[in-house]
């Protein structure tokens, strides 16, 4: 079971979690928030990037593939009608590894996207999720 609790902080701000795991959300200024914290949909993209990033790192570590500089970015286009939902999500993986390990990196990304990342699977229920790799070769 996955649980979450959030508490109203005034304005359009909410705080979730406790201690170091505390996450604050705020609405954008154009809808009445102060825009000082991520909006809820940004947090969904953070969740996607973290989920798939953890998968890729775990798979590569299990295969003993040395890598560095793993950065995962996610961006989404929204529908224009309310409720505005994601229609296309693009995930970009940036990683440095040996040239001969590129196929293993590509396979780790594929496995994350098709088998392991639950956030990606949930988003695919209503949106197209695309991914691409920016690979930097190291010696």
Annotation keywords:
139 residues; alpha+beta; GMP Synthetase, Chain A, domain 3; 2 domains; 3-stranded antiparallel beta sheet; 3-stranded mixed beta sheet; 3 helices; elongated
Order of helices and strands: EEEHEEHHE
Low-confidence stretches: none
The helix/strand class is alpha+beta
The CATH class of the largest domain: Alpha Beta
By DSSP (H or I, 4+ residues per run), the number of helices equals 3
Short synopsis of the structure:
The chain is α+β, with helices and mostly antiparallel strands. The protein is built from three helices and six strands.
Strand and helix layout:
Layout: E1 6-10, E2 13-16, E3 23-25, H1 40-62, E4 67-78, E5 86-98, H2 102-116, H3 118-124, E6 128-138
Parallel strand pairs: 5-6
Antiparallel strand pairs: 1-2, 2-3, 4-5
Helix pairs in contact: 1-2
